[in-house]
Design a protein that fits this description.
The protein has 533 residues and is α/β, with parallel strands linked by helices. Helix content is 26%, strand content 26%. The chain is built from 13 helices and 26 strands. Strands 2, 4, 5, 7, 8, 9, 10, 11, 12, 13 and 15 form an 11-stranded mixed β-sheet that branches. β17 and β18 form a beta hairpin. α10 crosses α11. The two termini are 31 Å apart.
């Protein structure tokens, strides 16, 4: 049938989600009838027929048990597509920006994993990284397919995703499928629909700003503007490469003085993949509503210029994804930002606010899990190479929140709950600290207290069971306390299970910062390499 297509995410070697309805979908001309069957050997596991309506079709097969070696067949008129070596197991979407995107070959011990891992029972599908719907987009999308693990094919898989999937497969004894849907340097606004952004008074600024910046420009003018930028950026990258060959330690300011200001990510217009809603349209919607067990998400760095909007933006995004994947409580496990600060930056404390928003999301949005990674950052390096702690903590969240094979005592480090003022001390109470704390050093560091003047000073901390008492000779009547309220600092307080205590502040009216943080230094984090098409 002319124009008939099965969505690219369905290919041989794919993994379908066990024990959930299986949604198989694609495009075609109205009026056609589509037959979808799933077989295992000589046994037909499921068979459904659906119609093509408004250019799309979707067949829902009943839930299936885990297995390998199944065959999915799709027929429409004279069209037939047979997909072989289909596994039914656990499927997780790996979303976010560069720390989720970081390839297995580039993480710590990644090359060893590639050469030594034997049959990890993990497969991968990468949603193509193209941010504009044109003929080239559709042509290259048709070449995308699921891959089984091999030293060559797995090299470009998400390192965090792979380590999570390998541990999960070993625990559950089923094949794990990972769908990579991530792009370095992206705001959560790029992964959210226009409607979701405009529905929130705070988050709407991402869309209204985009429209204002492109007012009066035709699509052709926006395309020409972005293509001119692409040419300029490629020239800039070559100059950057030459400078770093000459001086590998050249700082960002000196680099730009020598070769000009880096304009990445370029004009945010209809051609730029980083536009609000751009990758939602060109990546996420290309795989929805594929049946998933849940989502892994590592993002937040690129929204550090508007940290106070992140809770609204992030929760809107989660709600939108759940709607698109047709599951209101689709598990959504995310990584809280670790310690990080560039050497050239002052401590804006804007990452503190992103972390706080992420913890707020965990506390208020049903079906979410948080991997506290405060101890997993590096000074002056936004891409920590050791992804094992992050992947394992996501795995622990999945074991607790999704599979019920662990409890909170195993999956969570201490999280602040409330406080009591006792004279010159503040008694801090925590969730998930029933078994107490461990200190990796002589005494806990990172605590601060303040009186009514909101002038914070370092505090001494003493531990008593599941409580921490903080005080300072400089504060006679403590009113506020906070812990690790910094973009980058030492971390040495952990729960008895080895997971770090999460950063916090006791009250939201303690801050004196302005409403929006203005910084451009964060753009360093994604610059380099070739510009994605």
């Amino acid at each position: 049938m002319e124009g008939f297509r099965v969505a690219a995410v369905f290919s041989s070697n794919m993994v379908l989600q066990r024990e959930k309805k299986l949604r198989i979908f694609g495009e075609g001309s109205d009026g056609g009838s589509v037959s979808v069957s799933l077989t295992l050997g000589d046994t037909e596991l499921a068979h459904e027929v659906c119609d093509i309506t408004e250019g799309r079709w979707l067949a829902e097969l009943p839930p299936q048990k885990a297995c390998n070696g199944a065959v999915l067949t799709v027929r429409c008129g004279a069209f037939e597509k047979v997909l072989t070596n289909v596994a039914i197991g656990e499927v997780w979407l790996c979303g976010g920006q560069s720390n989720m995107e970081m390839e297995l070959q580039n993480i710590q011990d990644g090359r060893r994993f590639l050469s030594e891992d034997q049959e990890p029972n993990v497969r991968f599908y990468y949603t193509q990284k193209k941010g504009f719907l044109n003929e080239d987009f559709y042509e290259t999308e048709r070449q995308m397919c699921w891959k089984e693990f091999s030293e060559q094919d797995a090299a470009c898989w998400s390192g965090v995703g792979y380590l999570f999937g390998k541990e999960l497969a070993a625990k559950l004894g089923v094949t794990v499928g990972l769908i990579g849907c991530n792009w370095g340097g992206t705001s959560a606004s790029t992964w959210t629909s226009r409607e979701s952004l405009l529905a929130d008074r705070d988050a709407s600024v991402y869309w209204t700003e985009y429209e204002e910046n492109n007012a009066g420009k035709s699509l052709a003018e926006q395309i020409a503007e972005y293509e001119a930028y692409e040419e300029e950026y490629q020239v800039w990258l070559k100059k950057q490469e030459e400078c770093y060959r000459e001086d590998p330690k050249m700082d960002w300011g000196t680099l730009q003085e020598r070769i000009g200001v880096c304009r990445w990510p370029g004009p945010v217009n209809a051609r730029n993949p980083f536009r609000p809603g751009g990758l939602y349209e060109c990546m996420l919607l290309r795989i929805a509503p594929y049946s998933l067990r849940g989502v892994l998400f590592y993002q937040g760095e690129s929204d550090d210029h508007r940290p106070r909007l992140y809770y609204a933006l992030f929760t809107r995004m989660i709600a939108q994804w759940r709607k698109d994947f047709r599951e209101q409580t689709l598990p959504f496990l995310f990584v809280q930002l670790p310690m990080h600060r560039y050497a050239a930056d002052p401590d804006y404390k804007h990452w503190c606010l992103i972390r706080e928003a992420q913890m707020d999301c965990f506390a208020t949005v049903k079906g979410t899990g948080i991997a506290v990674a405060i101890d997993c950052g590096e000074f002056n390096e936004i891409h920590p190479k050791d992804k094992r702690p992050v992947a394992h903590r996501l795995y622990l969240q999945a074991m607790w929140q999704v599979y019920g094979l662990a409890d909170a005592a195993e999956a969570m480090g201490p999280v602040y709950r409330d406080f009591i003022v006792r004279g010159r001390e503040m008694e801090l109470c925590f969730e998930y600290a029933e078994n107490g704390f461990t200190v990796r050093g002589e005494e806990p560091v990172g605590f601060e207290i303040a009186g009514a003047d909101k002038r914070f000073v370092p505090a001494k901390a003493r531990i008593d069971g599941s409580r921490v008492f903080v005080s300072s000779e400089a504060v006679q009547k403590p009113r506020y306390a906070r812990y690790l309220w910094t973009n980058y600092g030492e971390v040495n307080l952990y729960g008895a299970n080895g997971l770090p205590a999460a950063p916090f502040r006791t009250c939201r009216d303690d801050e004196t910062q302005t409403a929006e943080i203005k910084t451009e230094i964060h753009q360093i984090m994604e610059v380099g390499g070739t510009l994605p098409s």
